[in-house]
Hints:
By secondary structure, the protein is of the alpha/beta class. The chain folds into two domains: 2-141 and 307-338, Quinone Oxidoreductase, Chain A, domain 1, CATH 3.90.180.10; 148-285, 3-Layer(aba) Sandwich (Rossmann fold), CATH 3.40.50. Helix content is 27%, strand content 27%. The protein contains eleven helices and 18 strands. The strands form four sheets. Strands 3, 5, 6, 9, 10, 17 and 18 form a seven-stranded mixed beta sheet that branches. A six-stranded parallel beta sheet has the order 13-12-11-14-15-16, sandwiched between helices. It is globular. Bound molecules: NADP nicotinamide-adenine-dinucleotide phosphate and zinc ion (ZN). The site of NADP nicotinamide-adenine-dinucleotide phosphate has 31 residues, from α1, α4, α5 and α8.
Amino acid sequence: MKAVRLEGLEQLFLRDVAPPEPGPGELLVRVEASGVCGTDRHLLHGSFPSTPPVTIGHEFCGIVEALGPGASGFAIGDRITADPNIVCGRCEPCQKGRINLCRNLRALGIQRDGGFATHAIVPQSQAYGLPASVKPEHGAFCEPIACCLHGIDMAQIQAGATVAVLGGGVIGLLTVQLARLAGARQVVLSTRQASRRRLAEDLGATATVDPTAGDPVAAISGPGGVLPGGADVVIECAGVPDTMRQMTHVARAGGTVVVLGVMPKGETVAWEPFDVLFRELRVLGSFINPFTHRRAAELVAAGTLQLDPLVTRRMGLDEVVNVVRQPAQPGEVKAMAVA
Ligand code: NAP
Ligand code: ZN
């Protein structure tokens, strides 16, 4: 079968590999759709750790083709989405319910073979059923949706709240939709590309801001801004120093700031402790998808979110290598390999 193999730093190839055999408790899945994530580029360049050689792809869904010994809960022909993050269940964070902080976290597509392949092995514990009626490319959104859901949960958005989202990639555009679903009255998105601002408004943002047109902090939380005095909740979804500096200033006094965006390890930005203290801000990190994958699958199954407008490129497995090697192209939101 074909698989996109990361064989070392900057070494990504489409290879012919032996079809995998499901082990005990595992499912053999024929991959139907598999999304490209910024993390795939980080894996290639070594800015996110992985254990090559490995088949990349951690956002995928497919059809169960075979069950390994003792596997149960699924039947041949079922459509499933895979939660790629496998936790040990035995370490201290796991035993205290903080499974995303597992000390032995191993992920499909990062440490174990993932979804940019004709077939993938998914432990039954990581599989969540999707109805046959769900479009495969929607199924492949479950993982990023699950990560955004955790951010929404951390933010504790109340009905009627105001929310500012900084960064309009796929994570920001999903977060805009989920914030509305969580009850936000106003959701403002700041992102540089005009096409994404228009898309965000179609998807439920009540206003958008062009951060290159002036000071985005003033445009959002200044006296004449969209949310004068600041947002109840700010969700950072860009992972760049500019937005990491802006995020606390865009929050209202007593507000909550959630960091979803990933900055390279070791990089720092300046912040003002007095402001966080005096305006009693809650600044929280949100890492991956603890206990949110099922809810993501249920939202996808229900068709609650608008996902079609987020798919900007459909391709075969043979194009994945080039797409991952190139930086994200202007206008690209989600590039997806579809079988
Ligand atoms: P992405 O496509 O790179 O989206 C980030 C977007 O932020 C960029 O495309 C860019 O869009 C916008 N941006 C850049 N500079 C900006 C600025 N100065 N002001 C406002 N917007 C700016 O990546 P993504 O897939 O949506 O992911 C977003 C972040 O979340 C990444 O850092 C990713 O690693 C992280 N992530 C975290 C988790 C988690 O578990 N916490 C899970 C998945 C992803 P414009 O060109 O329109 O400005
Ligand atoms: Zn653990």
